[in-house]
Amino acid sequence: AYRCGADAHSSFVPFDIAGTNERSSIREAPDGRMVLASDHLLAIGRPGHFQVARSENGLPISTDAIVSKNGTVWIGGSKGLFRFCWPFRMEFWSEREGLSGIGAVLHARNAVYATDGEGVKILSADRRSWSLLPHWPSLGGANDLIEGDGKSLIVALALRGAVQIKRDGTPIADPPKGMGGGMRLARTTDGVWLAGYPVSKVLRNGRLL
Description:
mainly beta
């Protein structure tokens, strides 16, 4: 619980922040924000507006944390002293937000794309969730992607070569039958190459890639 100078009564920290039943330190940042550090959680802010990092986000085990005047976060724990440069911002997405087994990430034309076991997904405008491209073909999972000609994307498929698609997932050029799975794509001065089974140069021939 906490109580600010103008408060008539004490208030409780939200359960999702303080409900871990672990030892924690509570400090005040120079700008008045609360700094809570425990073994598996770091929270900075005020109730309703906390920025949170957890061990699954890569946060080291911490026993104490402070925020300096320039906003830098210092975290002390059993593994040493860690420094998070200002601004303290960390975003994390997992199966709960629609991603699993991520293969690659691409930031292109004000959009963020990622490949996983279902195909190519796009980050929502509010940055809270991921969803399959609306017209993604039934080609299974994807391993990699790069920008293609115009506004297209070239995607390395886990089970069948590569496919060229529009930004909404609509196929432009399909992989030929019999192609093995594609692992990685690379653009060189000699064109686009697909590393997989086998290594091959990506060329378009009408509706085939």
